[in-house]
Amino acid sequence: MLSEEQKQRYARHLLLPEVGEKGQEKLLAAKVLIIGAGGLGSPVALYLAASGVGTLGIMDGDTVALSNLQRQIVHKTASIGRLKVDSAQETLAQLNPDVQVIAYPEYATPENLPHILDYYDLVIDCCDNLLTRYLVNDVAVLYHKPYVYGSIMRFDGQAAVLYPPAGPCYRCLFPETQLPTGLPDSREIGVLGITPGLVGMIQATEALKLILGIGESLNGQMLVIDALKMEILKVKIARDPDCVLCGDHPSIVDLAPENYLAY
């Protein structure tokens, strides 16, 4: 039962037949884990908190730097030097006191992520490196959790829901053996400050739809965004029956360290 204050806070949600009071109660009961409190994690966390997702876990071992503030909007100038998860937790508490924010001031590892993700309903990948992305994907598949994927580079971005068997996992799309080495990151090639905002809002939208059970999920589909041309392409993506993780005869059945390569 929503309080009178909550009815006012979420009034625009309650007007939507697809959400209503029962849907808002689902959001308040939901638990979402966000991996990364940077460019993608900022809009994801802000919009999920504003929407009333009741429990947000935020996992990141990094601290706020001045160069982050051009795109990592959950942080402020006064946050420089602080742990990103603490900065985000403070901002979100001021935005919506209904939301419990659990800060994990650490990077995801094969040892800590399974225990943490087990508590949550779904995971949103807002990380900035391949090693973590494969790990998040693998834990999500092995623990049967929906995985909302997003990535950015320069003016471009991608977003998808990866949730076998209805759709592929990350290894279906990007097998390790087919990846080039020495891939650049934003510190080397840059990123337009708004690009993670575009992708992060799509990720947050997909998370809300999954929680509410409404609309058409991006599971089995990927949005490819070119902000410079302002073009958005939706492409179908299929599960690979020969995938080493989610295929018919998987060879990855646990989180053995040798399954994770450093790039």
Key words describing this protein structure:
single chain, 263 residues, alpha/beta, Rossmann fold, 8-stranded mixed beta sheet
Examine the coordinates and then state which fold CATH places here, giving the name of the CATH topology: Rossmann fold
**Radius of gyration, taken over Cα atoms and rounded to an integer in Å:** 18 Å
Counting helices, strands and paired strands, the structural category is alpha/beta
**Text of the CATH class:** Alpha Beta
Give the overall shape: globular
CATH homology-level superfamily: NAD(P)-binding Rossmann-like Domain
> Which architecture name does CATH use?
3-Layer(aba) Sandwich
| E-strand count | 8
Give unreliable regions as ranges.
none
Give the total of domains: 1
Strand order of the largest sheet: 3-2-1-4-5-6-7-8
Q: What is the arithmetic mean of pLDDT? A: 93
The portion of residues assigned to helices is: 25-40%
How many helices does DSSP assign?
Answer: 10
Task: Compute the separation of the termini in Å.
Answer: 49 Å
Fraction of residues in β-strands: 15-25%
SSE order: HHHEHEHEHEHEEHHHEE
For the sheet with most strands, the description reads: 8 strands, mixed
